[in-house]
Amino acid sequence: MVGKPKVLSVNGLRTSFFTDGGIVPAVDGISFDLYEGEILGIVGESGCGKSVTSLSIMGLVPSPPGKITGGEILYGGRDLTKLKEREMRKVRGNDIAMIFQEPMTSLNPLFTIGSQMTEALLIHTNLGKRKARRRAAEMLKLVGLPRVEEIMDEYPHQLSGGMRQRVMIAMALVCEPNILIADEPTTALDVTIQAQILKLMKKLNERLDTAVLLITHDLGVVAETCGRVIVMYAGQIVEEGPVTEIFRNPQHPYTEGLLKSVPDMRFKQERLEPIPGNVPRPGAIRHGCRFAARCPYRFDRCTAEDPELYGTQPGHFARCFLRDKKEETAHDETLVES
Amino acid sequence: MLQYIGKRLLQLIPVLLGMTFIVFMIIRAIPGNPAQVILGQQASKEAVAALEAKLGLDQPWYTQYFEFLMNIFRGDLGESLRTRSPVADELWPYLAATIELAVFAMIIAVIIGVNAGIISAWFQNSWFDYTAMILALIGVSVPIFWLGLMGQWVFGIEMDLLPTTGREDVRNPVHAITGLYVIDTLIQGRFDQFGQVLRHLILPGIALATIPMAIIARMTRSSMLEVMRSDFVRTARSKGQKMFLVVYKHALKNAIIPVLTVIGLQMGILLGGAILTETIFGWPGIGRYIYDAIGFRDYPVVQSGILVVAFIFVMINLLVDVLYSVVDPRIKYD
Prior knowledge:
The complex is a heterodimer. Chain A is α/β, with parallel strands linked by helices. Chain A contains 13 helices and twelve strands.
């Protein structure tokens, strides 16, 4: 992927929620680049900040209580965090589009599919109603829906979950955005439908050259779809790299734990190994490695200092002192002990 | 849908029957009798008995009730005991006055109430939200007679801006065609009178609108708050839609059903006679017409008047139920 131009650059993004119980840093200084035409996965458990990241990019963090408190999101030479609402509206749906987890509730139940499909076109393009409708119908065909003309006049409750998610995808892509953010697009669907939707997203990514930011908690989804993946934990990126690389050779203990807790069909008898402990509440750990309390390789430095992202291979980084060149020797010893 | 409406109309029959029976019995439970009221305190027993016989009041109650029902089925609302003219003819001008006032008041209540509720929900916990909700609380609690009298005093007497009683300028009376003066004056092209009629509507209209307005505002706010958190609102925003349209198109349509219910119920109450408001503002409406008839023990007027009001009430509620399915395609009758 490196070599292709960047379409989106997130630098040191911080998004916090100002609640009665204090300030909760849901996203705590994350940086990544999204390249043209790639599918980048963001994976992590619930509450790790992956959804807040995507909403921050869209400028849709519920505010109050949420607020972007630092960093920048660069798109087309502009910092999206600095745009006025009016300018941001032109970006949403037109340059960056989003699909959500719940196809059941993400479509407005009282408007026809046609009216919801053409809405973004009527906002962002000069197409008339008739042309917008034709364009919307083409898009619905492209996502593999049957009897498109009828569906245009139907309401969401008349469609199945899988069909609705196809409609959501078509709706997001109808203005041909450069970036598609998909927040858990398959989580609410049956497994067979999941596979279809993922295949569809991959096909559209290749065909329309739209960069996709795929947010999921499911490593299987990442393995099937993404080229690169970012692993998030407690508001931070803990590992970033090519999917094949990370699956074969995870560099962060958390990633390793995640992979071990996924069932592998090749070894039937093997018991799954869950990661001990729970995800810390965002903001609960202010010093040291966020994962230290649950980490089997923990040593003194982990709770004393904040680890950085250390490069292990070209394009592969991990936020772990074990990958710090200075710690190489200590690392070996720890591994022997465990 | 037509089948559903037909079914609902059939269901109305027992409701209205029961209602006529209750009203029939209650009015007769009030001490005093129409013949005595008409003839006065000094009348002889024989004269009263003769008049009773003439009015058919000497018959047993079930005969009278049966007769009343038969007349209703024939579309005859009976005759006023006092004026000897058909209730149907007498009733309409009063009903028209009430409809005009109620519709005017409801328009004010809906426009202000719905918008205040939407803006309060949109900017939840803002100064607007707090102010609007405090006003709404005051609105539902303030006694109408006090509000009406204050309105008359401030805008009618002190500032001399608006008329305080009646529905027209008595020196320049409206020639009634439909009985709805706003329409009558427009048909006749009498714009001077049209202005007068509107001016007469303002004070009683606002007094009458206050409670429904407050209830509608509170209902709209709570319904909107729920809808604004929906996923599809976020979807609409993610398309780049203007917040105004997200709120007024996507969210409002989803939030409007409970509000419609409240509007329907309140409209029924307003039409049922805002006796207090009509009395304070000298408004010749149905509430006062029935109230006066009770004083005269004018049984047919009370019975038929209340029947008509009840009929309108249930028809409005039927209309609201039909509107649900227009707003929400998931609601299907049949």
